[in-house]
Task: structure prediction
Amino acid sequence: MEIINPATEALITTIEEDTNTSAQEKYEKVHQGQKDWQKVPISERIATITKFSELLKSEADELAQTLTREMGKPLNQSHNELNGARGRIQYFVENSKKWLAEEVVTEEEGLVEKIAYEPLGVIANISAWNYPYLVGVNVFIPALITGNAVLYKPSEYTTLTGLKIGELLHQAGVPDDAFQVVVGGGEVGKALLDLPLDGYFFTGSNRTGKSIYETVAPKMVPCQMELGGKDPLYVPNDNANVAKVAQAAAEGTFYNNGQSCCAVERVYVHQAIYDEFMEAFGQEVQQLKLGNPEEDGVFIGPLARQEQIAVLEQQVQDAIDKGAQLLAGGKKADRTGYYFEPTVLTNVNHQMQVMREESFGPIIGIQRVADDDEAVTLMQDTDYGLTAAVYCDTQEKAEEILAKIDSGTAYWNCCDRVSATLPWSGRKKSGFGSTLSYQGIRTFTKPKAYHLRKI
Ligand code: NAD
Result:
């Protein structure tokens, strides 16, 4: 498997992919090891995870550079991701014991009823490339703390990062037979579906998620899906500082080159402030520096995947054919590497792909709306349901609008944000099940109900 730097198109290295046989061997290894890992006291399991987090800190420069080189995000964003991942780990370290402790729920004459939480067993973590540390730690950290063994398949676009994660977990004290990295692309991911695993935790596209869910359904084991989004942001006519809102909206759109599951993917602006918003948004986009992600000040690096350029070009062409106007960008940047210019489309509508299909790139459609009702109708006109944002001065107004939107996450005056203390969950085509928060700890366990009667 060739690892290519998307900024230069140069070969970084070649790596040997796993085969069905080696994946099977890795499964057998962790299947053997899981029972011992489960017996390690939870304080010790947590201590190894704390050590892992310290290693992420002490090796941050090298890890950030590896991530930037293989995936293309600006170096400071790689550092932000590592810091964010450590923050999430801290949440799990501080809170897991509380949520995994046995709970006595009834204590009466001669009867005790209690709930115990047991690990699922060996789980697969099939992961995405856009935030390999963040989406990874959402799964493998609580899975390990709760006593599961993990077969972790990083995306083929962040293989080096995935291997480094495995190396550092082992260095921190997680046994070799409790965590194994399985290397490769979709075919290797498929091989994991054939193994008798006790749970499947997937982060990636709706298309792949659906095929995994269909394949593993007959196993009757837990399966959790964190999939894509088409997240809306609405700006009602209730804003004293429209320029500030435009700045936040641009950041939510273009951070990580738009390759975030919760990136702002479409914007609706009340007609009364539309012109003011568009002017401010246009200025923000002009300031975005495109270039080599290892250079200071660069905000727009290359896309991680070359194929995505054609998807974005197709969305731009489709929108223009149906009457959209191009305010900025619209094409591949004229340089080596998988660069796409930050792109803004106006005069858009819901007949256009750019307002309905996940773009996953530096491209946004901005639509003028007559009132809040029209905005709600359009925000709801989607097969996805990951996040939705409203920017306005009045919290009550924002909450009233957000309550009508079928999404797992609702934002007032913020966007493209994940908190370790809140459940992260999609609805509709964005998936099901939760990571993070206490739900994201218990999801890696099976509850056992004890009825204990004295006779
Ligand atoms: P992808 O679906 O192409 O790949 C995800 C993983 O699945 C990779 O490891 C890949 O090798 C593997 N895979 C591919 N085909 C497979 C198959 N048939 N069987 C088993 N495994 C297979 O997704 P991606 O391009 O890596 O990630 C981008 C997508 O992920 C976007 O849609 C984004 O919105 C979504 N995402 C969602 C969240 C979330 O929390 N909801 C977070 C990050 C990314």
